[in-house]
Amino acid sequence: MTVGTGLRSTPASRQRRRGSRRARLVGGLAGVLVTVVVAGLVLWLSHAFGGGAKRTADKVPVSWQRPVVTADGLTQQSGVKITQVVVTGDGGLVDLRFKVVDPDRANALHDPSTPPAVVDEESGLVVHELFMNHSHTGPYKAGVTYYLVFNNPGNWVHHGSRVSVMLGNAQVEHVVVP
Predict the structure, then answer these.
(1) pTM for the whole thing?
(2) pLDDT per residue over 9-43, tens digit each?
(3) Which end of the chain, N or C, is less packed with Cβ atoms under 10 Å?
């Protein structure tokens, strides 16, 4: 008998309490496991089926298509040389950098009928919305490296992606994003 409480503690009652604690612990862990599995399944399905975006190669509007050139051909056609295409901002941004070789040809990049864009070659998704609508205005200068930062919705363009870069009146295909 326990002194002061008037209650009697038996080995059987202690065993029941221990058993109910184990049941609560096992139930709680099972609930957490089910929640993690369901959340993982939802994320996987949303990515696998595009999260509402179609995974087709016909996302580039016909009016945006440009002659395909090599990297050297881009320099001759648009007056710029691509220096890097990287994913930044924890995957939410694509940073495109280019060096101006011929400022007169590079000024064609300002033409609204040929907006700059990056196309993910696997999904066909066109990344063209500039982060905070920032773009260069005014004449380009020879030897200067400029940048365009695009929003990367759904992190479609990622490390290891192959992309097509559209600048001016030309497009360079199979650019690997490091």
Answers:
(1) 0.65
(2) 666 655 555 667 777 878 777 777 777 666 665 55
(3) N
Report residue 138 as tokens: 């005014």
Residues 97 and 32 in one domain: no
Which structural domain range is residue 16 located in? 11-48
Greatest pairwise CA separation for the chain in angstroms: 99
CATH number, domain containing residue 130: 2.60.40
Domain match, 18 and 87 both = no
Degrees, nearest 5: CA angle 78-82-83: 150
How far is it, in rounded angstroms, from Cα 32 to Cα 118? 40
Cα(108)–Cα(160) distance, rounded to whole angstroms? 30
- The CA distance from 170 to 74, in Å, is 6
Examine the domain organization and report whether 31 and 67 are in the same domain: no
Same domain membership, residue 172 and residue 140: yes
Alpha carbons 22 and 20: distance in angstroms, whole number: 5
